[in-house]
From TrEMBL, chain A:
Belongs to the D-isomer specific 2-hydroxyacid dehydrogenase family. GO terms for molecular function: glyoxylate reductase (NADPH) activity; hydroxypyruvate reductase [NAD(P)H] activity; NAD binding. Keywords: NAD, NADP, Oxidoreductase. This is D-isomer specific 2-hydroxyacid dehydrogenase NAD-binding domain-containing protein.
UniProtKB/TrEMBL annotation, chain B:
This is D-isomer specific 2-hydroxyacid dehydrogenase NAD-binding domain-containing protein. Residues 51-326 form the D-isomer specific 2-hydroxyacid dehydrogenase catalytic domain. CDD domains: HPPR. Pfam families: 2-Hacid_dh, 2-Hacid_dh_C. The lineage of its organism: Eukaryota, Viridiplantae, Streptophyta, Embryophyta, Tracheophyta. Keywords: NAD, NADP, Oxidoreductase.
């Protein structure tokens, strides 16, 4: 049986790469220079029947169109915004992803970012390391996270996991979601603007779609206000980044903890001098344990596909 | 004498005197000045002993700010003192035995800071495991676009957390970490059956069954260096230590050695043995998170603290029970 030709769209994870290489016929997309990538795809189109993508690079319409033998797209992550789902559906291409295994790490990071931003953990570490504690005396007072109202945008698996953790800190929970989740006791707001006006810490945990692009706009940021905190563990384009930067520079927003940005790997340099932001390079699921779990899930899905067994975690 | 309401202001002649040896926050100053006459040693040109002899000969209450040491020598200079009130939860800077001997009552900040210290401990733990501060530095140095590799973090859920000292702070830490899926165990002077966590009779036993130790106990003669070489060895190479208690609870030199040699997984430290001095070998290390004794420094608690301090002083001067008395040695 012909070995499954797998195109790895980005350098996601060494273990995943090694296993794909061992079990299948691996094509590494980044090995060809950008100008020659269409050619690379054409040359290998006969062999490539699977694409493994990530938030860095997924399977867009152009790539899908250049791969006539494509049968399956495997997304390393639960966010599907880099996969052209419509094109996959049109072509009958299966799509699998990695839900559930990513939930805990992403929710943990959301809380970690909220505390780090409000309590200035990173900045006070810097204050200590650069000798200021000795030279300038005590660090300033910061803002407590416990007991603050947490508003969650998107109450899916990750949103609910964030809520459960925040409750341990005595935080009242409210949320905005496409539909009300009646099995929870949390207060529902039908719009993100009302949510922002009624919470102190807003966590973005919804999928990125056409409707949710720039859902956190200036109006929402202003509603959150000078004591408000924005935590983004969703996607950079959820937030109007220019407005966010300007609000933070002007003190119109209290603090922000950001794992994602509109133009990764570029984070806005204007924020680099601020003490009330925490900036991390899309590490929501970057733990040894979870990366392996995600990789294994991708591999099992691909194995199931080649053996004609049911896919474990299909999108469709 | 049922009323617990506090008069808003008293005529100057009636205000009881409270001695302060280091400056309070503006808020605390304002709240207390309305009800008490504050004797401020630092505002006088006299050396402390002359100031005390001249101006504090009859003072009955001392308010300790910023962990000022209260020892036998100081108490000798304050023969009429009957009450020491500290704005901290910890009392290791106060010689409790000397206070007991002289019939001096002591009050502390009770549980005013417990939630924010507990949340800070959790924040430090997430930071160490997920490399939040290290990654924040990485981004601010402009390294992300260059695509340099950085190590993966470690998942919090499922990590066995051992809490050293299941008091007010320790129990708030436990409550929070349970929600992250961490099994909780503890060591404490006595078992606490009201909590569903596993008790260990020694810190070394606790460490042997833990991936993370959170140190949240009081510093006393018995607990000095309670986190010692044996405990660190029992915790193991992947172990994490979070200290929000006092620096001297941990053998700092031993911890630094292990961190430099990769014999321990990492540490989140808010307190140090000789603050504000911090072992500089740690400054270049990415698997420690260091903070300048700020776990209790949140805005929201400062008004709680002012109210509590005023209430304790009022209680003392009215012969009523203190709100947050510190038990003294027999």
């Amino acid at each position: 049986m012909e070995s499954l030709g797998v195109l790895l769209a980005a350098r996601i994870d060494p273990y995943l790469e090694a296993e794909l290489d061992r079990r299948f016929k691996l094509f590494r997309f980044w090995e060809s220079p950008p100008a020659q990538r269409r050619e690379f795809l054409r040359e290998n189109a006969e062999a490539i029947r699977a694409v493994v993508g990530s938030p860095a690079r997924g399977a867009d319409a152009e790539m899908i169109d250049l791969l006539p033998r494509l049968e399956i797209v495997a997304n390393f992550g639960v966010g599907l915004d880099k996969v052209d789902l419509r094109r996959c559906r049109e072509r009958g291409v299966r799509v699998v992803y990695t839900p559930d295994v990513v939930t805990d790490d992403t929710a943990d990071l959301a809380i970690g970012l909220a505390i780090a931003a409000m309590r200035r953990i990173c900045d006070s570490d810097r204050y200590l390391r650069d000798g200021s504690w000795k030279d300038k005396g005590d660090y300033k007072l910061t803002s407590k996270f416990s007991g603050k109202t947490v508003g969650i945008l998107g109450l899916g698996r990750i949103g609910q996991a964030v809520a459960k953790r925040a409750e341990g800190f005595g935080c009242p929970i409210c949320y905005c979601s496409r539909s009300e989740k009646r099995h929870t006791n949390y207060k529902y707001y039908p719009s993100v603007l009302e949510l922002a006006a009624n919470c102190q810490v807003l966590v973005v945990a919804c999928p990125l779609t056409e409707e949710t692009r720039h859902i956190i706009n200036r109006e929402v940021i202003d509603a959150l206000g000078p004591k408000g905190v924005l935590v983004n563990i969703g996607r950079g384009p959820h937030v109007d980044e220019c407005e966010l930067v300007s609000a933070l520079l002007d003190g119109q927003l209290g603090a922000a903890g950001l794992d994602v940005f509109e133009h990764e790997p570029h984070a806005p340099e204007q924020l680099f001098g601020l003490d009330n932001v925490v900036l991390v390079p899309h590490i929501g699921t970057d733990t040894l344990e979870t990366s392996k779990a995600m990789a294994d899930l991708i591999l099992e899905n691909l194995e199931a596909h080649v053996s004609n067994r049911p896919l474990l975690t299909p999108v469709f | 004498m049922a009323s617990s309401s506090v008069p808003q202001g008293r005529p100057e002649t009636e205000r009881p005197q409270v001695l302060l040896l280091s400056p309070p926050s503006a808020e605390l100053d304002e709240v207390l000045s309305a009800r008490f006459e504050l004797l401020k040693s630092w505002e006088s040109p006299l050396p402390l002993d002359r100031f005390l002899a001249t101006h504090a000969a009859d003072v009955r209450a001392l308010l300790v700010i910023n962990l000022f040491t209260v020892d036998g020598a100081l108490l000798d200079a304050l023969p009429t003192l009957r009450f020491v009130c500290t704005t901290s939860a910890g009392v290791n800077h106060i010689d409790l035995a000397e206070c007991a001997r002289r019939g001096i009552a002591v009050a502390n900040a009770g549980t005013v800071f417990s939630q924010e210290v507990a949340e800070y401990a959790v924040g430090l733990l997430i930071d160490v495991l997920r490399r939040v501060s290290a990654c924040d530095r990485y981004v601010r140095r402009g390294l992300w676009p260059r695509g340099g590799d950085y190590p993966l973090g470690s998942k919090l859920g499922g990590k066995r957390v051992g809490i050293v000292g299941l008091g007010s702070i320790g129990s708030e830490v436990a409550k929070r970490l349970q929600a992250f899926g961490c099994p909780i165990s503890y060591f404490s002077r006595s078992r606490k059956p009201q909590f569903p966590y596993t008790y260990f009779p020694s810190v070394a036993d606790l460490a042997a069954q833990s991936d993370v130790l959170v140190v949240a106990c009081a510093l006393t003669h018995e607990t000095h260096h309670i986190i010692n070489k044996d405990v660190m060895a029992a915790l193991g190479k992947e172990g994490i230590i979070i200290n929000v208690g006092r620096g001297a609870l941990v053998d700092e030199a031993e911890l630094v050695k292990r961190l430099m040699r990769g014999e321990i997984g990492g540490a989140g430290l808010d307190v140090f043995e000789h603050e504000p001095a911090v072992p500089e070998e740690l400054f270049g290390v990415d698997n420690v998170v260091l903070s300048p004794h700020v776990a209790m420094q949140a805005f929201e608690s400062s008004s709680d603290l002012s109210r509590l301090t005023a209430a304790n002083l009022e209680a003392f001067f009215s012969d009523r029970p203190l709100l947050t008395p510190v038990p003294l040695p027999a």
